[in-house]
Amino acid sequence: MNFLSHYYFDRDTTDCYFTLGTVLPDLLKNADKTIVLHPEKLVHADPKVNSIIQGWNKHLLVDKHFHSADFFLTHSHNLKNLLAPVIVESPVKPFFLGHIAIELILDNLLITTNEIIVSDFYDHLDNCELAIIREFLVFAEMKNPDVFFKFYEEFKRSRYLNTYINIDQITYALKRICMRVWRNPFTLQQEAEMTGILLDYRLGLIANFMSIYNEIGAKLNNPEA
Question: pTM of the entire structure?
Answer without folding.
Answer: 0.94
